[in-house]
């Protein structure tokens, strides 16, 4: 009797759990086979969820949904679906699913920033302000260039100090890119061993480990109660909030102690933002929104560019014929007696094609940044309910075998025409390339990133022959490590000087 009562109670509880956790709505989109209660969550919380989603899309079609416990997520895997959602129906899908992610909500202190806010008057004002400050920054191209080149000169110096011996370039690249971001944000480079620089690094790197689809602790998004049981990611999130507050206090103190012309390059984007809102009656933007946007820009700008540069060196080792062509163009257009300038770009189609190919091949931001349907809408005849998170699988778009010939071969020529000129922007290859997303939420740092990659790649190539280190590591992007951004596995390289006098 007792046994029967317990069995009935358990069955009732399980049924109740199913009723509570079963996803609401009646989506017609196919879903991969998963657990009856928690759906696909543990399958999807894996390293390289982009590769898994790409495999699923081959069985289920370009648009499918995942069930993560009681929530439906829509995954878009080809050009038509991504372009329709991001560009044609940009307004319908420009939201961010902040309410779905406990980790993000807690980290962002239940407030918003440029990256996590759905379109609203506050988001528009913030995006417009950052954008106009970025533009001011870009307007004086010489200034941006001077900033970049001073940091790049330091990086070249670090590389030279290796005397052509094998070494892992990861830290040097990361520190240089982080300092480029510091100059962009607050108008100043920092000493690598300074407390503030170390805090910048800690905030950036920890953010990457606690957010993102495949990051550890994704289960907190649907089982928030786990925070009461000593969950490690929750502890990290709490620490990160403290480090960010500390970094923000130090940054403000530093900015306040400087006069307009004091900093090497003004007060940067954050200095300008703070000045425009401090003392203004406009209560739309609060200091916390600027602090959170500061964090967005640190992590959106650093590892994306650092990982691309790290991938570049290993690609040059693995594709020596590409390196030769790049060097030939650098030697031809820039020569060996002056540093590279952004103005050279117009005369360097091969280099620009190489950068496009690198962005396609590596697809560093493989799953984009999650979007959300802001209204009831549809994609390819399927209803997408308001509030549904929508993920763009940019990896699948950039490695679609039905569209790209040999997508796993690194070949810059695919972006050149028969006269070796860059394909025009309306060419299908250019249109299918969306490493920065597209539409309303397109990456805010696209032109900055393209400019920096150009200066970094050409400067390194001008000064060094890039050679294999102690052992060759495959550059196949399918083997990259996951996080929020993909990263090449560690390798070492020999950078053998071919130009002794520049940056000496
Ligand atoms: C190789 C370098 C970079 C790549 C591949 C990249 C890629 C992306 C992607 C895919 C998105 C999401 C777009 C979407 O929501 O559909 C994004 C958003 C964003 N990126 Fe980048 N990014 C790069 C560099 C940068 C830099 C240097 C900055 C600024 C310093 C930056 C700032 C941002 C911001 C603020 C957003 C959010 C925009 C919004 O939500 O409205 N990114 N980026």
Automatic annotation (TrEMBL):
Q: Which Pfam families match?
A: p450 (PF00067)
Q: Which residues bind heme?
A: 443
Report TM segments.
none
Q: Name residues in a coiled coil.
A: none
Gene3D superfamilies in UniProt: Cytochrome P450 (1.10.630.10)
Naming one, the record's GO cellular component terms include:
endoplasmic reticulum membrane
Its membrane topology, per UniProt?
Peripheral membrane protein
Protein name, entry field: Cytochrome P450
In which organism is this protein found? Capitella teleta
Q: What is the lineage of its organism?
A: Eukaryota, Metazoa, Spiralia, Lophotrochozoa, Annelida
């Amino acid at each position: 009797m007792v046994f029967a009562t317990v069995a009935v109670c358990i069955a009732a509880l399980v049924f109740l759990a199913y009723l509570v956790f079963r996803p609401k709505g009646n989506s017609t989109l196919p879903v991969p086979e998963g657990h009856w209660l928690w759906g696909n969550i543990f399958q999807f919380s894996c390293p390289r969820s982009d590769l898994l989603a790409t495999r699923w899309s081959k069985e289920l079609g370009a648009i499918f949904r995942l069930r993560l416990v009681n929530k439906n997520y829509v995954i878009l895997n080809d050009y038509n679906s991504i372009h329709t959602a991001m560009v044609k129906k940009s307004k319908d899908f420009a939201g961010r699913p902040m309410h779905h992610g406990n980790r993000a909500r807690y980290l962002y202190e239940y407030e918003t920033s440029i990256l996590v806010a759905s379109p609203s008057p506050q988001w528009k004002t913030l995006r417009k302000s950052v954008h106009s400050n970025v533009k001011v920054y870009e307007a004086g191209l010489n200034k941006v260039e001077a900033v970049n080149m001073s940091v790049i000169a330091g990086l070249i110096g670090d590389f030279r100090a290796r005397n052509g011996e094998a070494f892992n370039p990861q830290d040097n690249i990361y520190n240089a890119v982080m300092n480029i971001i510091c100059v962009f944000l607050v108008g100043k480079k920092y000493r690598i061993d300074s407390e503030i620089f170390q805090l910048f690094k800690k905030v950036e790197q920890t953010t990457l480990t606690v957010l993102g689809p495949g990051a550890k602790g994704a289960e907190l998004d649907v089982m928030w109660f786990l925070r009461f049981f000593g969950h490690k990611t929750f502890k990290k999130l709490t620490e990160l909030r403290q480090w960010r507050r500390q970094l923000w206090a130090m940054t403000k103190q530093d900015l306040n102690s400087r006069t307009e012309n004091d900093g090497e390059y003004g007060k940067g984007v954050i200095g300008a933002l703070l000045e425009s809102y401090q003392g203004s009656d406009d209560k739309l933007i609060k200091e916390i929104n600027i602090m959170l946007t500061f964090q967005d820009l640190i992590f959106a700008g650093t590892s994306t560019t650092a990982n691309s540069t790290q991938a570049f060196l290993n690609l040059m080792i693995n594709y020596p014929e590409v390196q030769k062509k790049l060097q030939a163009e650098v030697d031809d257009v820039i020569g060996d007696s002056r540093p590279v300038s952004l103005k050279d770009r117009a005369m360097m189609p091969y280099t620009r094609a190489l950068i496009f190919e690198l962005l396609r091949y590596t697809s560093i931001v493989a799953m984009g940044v999650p979007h959300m349907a802001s209204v009831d809408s549809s994609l390819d005849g399927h209803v997408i309910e308001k509030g549904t998170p929508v993920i763009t699988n940019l990896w699948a778009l950039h490695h679609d075998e039905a569209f790209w010939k040999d997508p796993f071969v690194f070949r810059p020529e695919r972006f050149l025409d028969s006269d070796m000129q860059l394909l025009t922007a309306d060419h299908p290859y250019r249109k299918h390339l969306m490493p920065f997303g597209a539409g309303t939420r397109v990456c805010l740092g696209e032109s900055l990133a393209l400019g920096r990659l150009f200066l970094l790649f050409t400067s390194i190539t001008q000064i060094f022959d890039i050679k294999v280190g102690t052992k060759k590591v495959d550059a196949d992007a399918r083997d990259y490590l996951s996080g929020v951004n993909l990263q090449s596995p560690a390798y070492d390289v020999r950078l053998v000087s071919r130009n002794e006098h520049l940056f000496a």
